[in-house]
């Protein structure tokens, strides 16, 4: 049976959850209070709905109770996040995951019964710090709050694959800017270029995508 999820809040975090769940074959109802956000997901999510999820009647009419797992990815609006979580508990949703903005928010969410509280910015900072120290990442340059350039070393898992085999632009939204091989620097390498062990890839992308890539591929 197909897994069914609801994602509330289609910002960068919620949006990437929707995309990944869909990529992995799940059914997703994507909800946001803003029409333009919902429009963006109309052709991606199984269902995309404009709704204010702090309204219990709205949640009931959407049949949210029948989904196995609801993810609350409402960002800065802590009040909406808390109210939504409370309403979801009230209507009896089995599993609720909520994104917390800070420790205080997290505490409240746990008190009202959120099953899982995630802290993506904090966790990602820790993750990136670890990645900087890891063997695969040679260098790292923060371009903005959420984009970076990284130098990663090619291990045996990806050596002898071509760039097109890895398909990282389509799958992860990451671009390989250059390959360093010994003293050679190949700028904008061709898609059929075969990677060699110990090549250094210079990649650019969103931190979330780079982390996803590292987790899955390296
Ligand atoms: P991120 O940091 O992940 O980019 P944002 O704050 O940009 O987070 O995204 C949160 C989303 O949640 C926004 O698109 C916002 O419109 C949506 N949102 C806020 N309040 C509600 C609500 N009451 N019901 C539904 N969606 C909401």
From TrEMBL:
<feature type="domain" description="RCK C-terminal">
    <location>
        <begin position="135"/>
        <end position="218"/>
    </location>
</feature>
<dbReference type="GO" id="GO:0008324">
    <property type="term" value="F:monoatomic cation transmembrane transporter activity"/>
</dbReference>
<dbReference type="InterPro" id="IPR003148">
    <property type="entry name" value="RCK_N"/>
</dbReference>
<feature type="domain" description="RCK N-terminal">
    <location>
        <begin position="2"/>
        <end position="118"/>
    </location>
</feature>
<dbReference type="InterPro" id="IPR036291">
    <property type="entry name" value="NAD(P)-bd_dom_sf"/>
</dbReference>
<dbReference type="InterPro" id="IPR006037">
    <property type="entry name" value="RCK_C"/>
</dbReference>
<dbReference type="InterPro" id="IPR050721">
    <property type="entry name" value="Trk_Ktr_HKT_K-transport"/>
</dbReference>
<dbReference type="GO" id="GO:0006813">
    <property type="term" value="P:potassium ion transport"/>
</dbReference>
<dbReference type="InterPro" id="IPR036721">
    <property type="entry name" value="RCK_C_sf"/>
</dbReference>
<dbReference type="Pfam" id="PF02080">
    <property type="entry name" value="TrkA_C"/>
</dbReference>
<protein>
    <submittedName>
        <fullName>Trk system potassium uptake protein TrkA</fullName>
    </submittedName>
</protein>
<dbReference type="Pfam" id="PF02254">
    <property type="entry name" value="TrkA_N"/>
</dbReference>
């Amino acid at each position: 049976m197909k897994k069914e999820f609801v994602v509330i809040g289609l910002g960068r975090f919620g949006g990437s959850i929707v995309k990944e769940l869909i990529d992995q074959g799940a059914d997703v109802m994507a909800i946001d209070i803003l029409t333009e956000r919902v429009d963006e997901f109309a052709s991606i999510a199984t269902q995309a709905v404009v709704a204010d999820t702090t309204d219990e009647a709205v949640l009931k009419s959407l049949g949210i109770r029948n989904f196995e797992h609801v993810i609350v990815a409402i960002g800065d609006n802590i009040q909406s996040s808390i109210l939504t979580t409370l309403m979801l508990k009230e209507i009896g949703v089995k599993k609720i995951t909520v994104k917390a903005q800070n420790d205080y928010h997290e505490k409240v969410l746990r008190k009202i019964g959120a099953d899982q509280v995630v802290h993506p910015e904090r966790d990602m900072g820790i993750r990136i710090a670890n990645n900087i120290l890891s063997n695969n990442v040679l260098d790292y340059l923060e371009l903005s709050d959420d984009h970076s350039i990284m130098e990663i070393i090619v291990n045996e898992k990806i050596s002898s694959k071509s760039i097109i085999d890895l398909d990282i632009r389509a799958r992860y939204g990451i671009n390989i800017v250059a390959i360093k091989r010994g003293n050679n620097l190949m700028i904008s390498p061709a898609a059929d270029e075969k990677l060699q062990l110990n090549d250094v890839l210079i990649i650019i992308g969103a931190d979330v995508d780079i982390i996803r890539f590292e987790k899955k591929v390296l």
